[in-house]
Amino acid sequence: MNIVNNLFNIKYPIVQGGMVWCSGWKLASAVSNAGGLGLIGAGSMRPSVLEEHIKKCKKATSKPFGVNLPLLYSQIDKHLEIILREKVKIIFTSAGNPMLYTNIFKKNNITVVHVVSSKKFAVKAFEAGVDAIVAEGFEAGGHNGVNETTTMCLIPEISESINIPVIAAGGIASGKSMLAALSLGANGVQIGSRFAVCKESSSHKLYKNYVFDSKEGDTQLTLKELTPVRLLRNEFFYKIQKAYQDKVSVNDLKEILAKGRAKKGIFEGDLINGELEIGQVSSMISKEQTAKQIIDEIINEFNKQKLLIKSIKLNK
Question: Residues near 72 by Cβ (< 8 Å), separated by ≥ 6?
Fold first, then answer.
């Protein structure tokens, strides 16, 4: 059995990204029921909402699922209480120092995975005692690393530096890209963008359609001075670009960003004033599918591609 399958007790080494405003209990349970690992995205949830989603997810699936927890979230202590009380078994942490909470999770028999975008932070997470690493390349949607390291460079760099499972993220949306990631040294993959616009995602229909209509080059990493984020081009994006041209201060950028931009764009469907976070693979996504259809399609293509490569080797 694949080491990631064994770690999470899942059928396929496919993890759904814990994306804000997309990853509620419906998506997490659908991915888990389809054989992957579903994650509830706690970053956009008040403590009471997180508790509600965990309880509903338990009712919707008997399979393992987890919670994605940004460590810089303002009410993380309350989230932590709920996670422990509800006996969540798998936690993916991000956006912060894994040293802060990993020991607490491990004492409560929780499997801990930390998301990183560089070898430096992968080693730190390994030293903090996490069970696995998500190595997220520059292609990924949403918040990203400042170094702009691509998945193809990042995965071998990290997998050769630590001896715990590595889950590849960023630019992975097909069986072919999954096979490539495993060939580079990953033990599994985390997929965000395809699940962000699937049927069970809580993202708005207008946002989904905007993603389906996107073309190559329509996303860009921006706002490095605050927190790097990959966005689709819209009026809000061009407002940021104009601010850069005007050489505004970091404080001015903060005022432009304000609060709730991701909610406006992704959850409420405000295509003018909202942040439209998505990965570079958005240009390859053209229709809404169920989580099961996505996973089945990826696994079928993965297996076909493996057979093709095997036949090429035999012919040599």
Answer: 95, 96
Kindly report the pTM of this predicted structure.
0.94
**Same structural domain, 176 and 228:** no
Shared domain check, 86 and 21: yes
**Same domain for 211 and 133:** no
Helix (H, G, I), strand (E, B) or coil at 114: strand
> Do 47 and 75 touch, CB atoms closer than 8 A?
yes
Looking at the fold, whether 190 and 212 belong to one and the same domain comes out as no
What residues make up the domain containing 245?
205-282
CATH number, domain of 82, equals: 3.20.20.70
Residues 214 and 86 in one domain: no
Please work out, in degrees rounded to the nearest 5, the angle formed at the alpha carbon of residue 202 by the alpha carbons of 62 and 165: 55
* Inter-helix orientation angle 47-60/76-85, to 10°: 30
195 and 254 in a single domain? The answer is: no
pLDDT in tens, the chain (316 residues): 589 999 999 999 999 999 999 999 999 999 999 999 999 999 889 999 999 999 999 999 999 999 999 988 778 899 999 999 999 999 999 888 888 899 999 999 999 999 999 999 999 999 999 999 999 999 999 888 788 899 999 999 999 999 999 999 999 999 999 999 999 999 999 999 999 999 999 999 999 999 999 999 999 999 888 888 999 999 999 999 998 998 888 888 888 887 789 999 999 999 999 999 999 999 999 999 999 999 999 999 999 998 888 787 666 5
Task: Check whether residue 161 and residue 270 sit in a common domain.
Answer: no
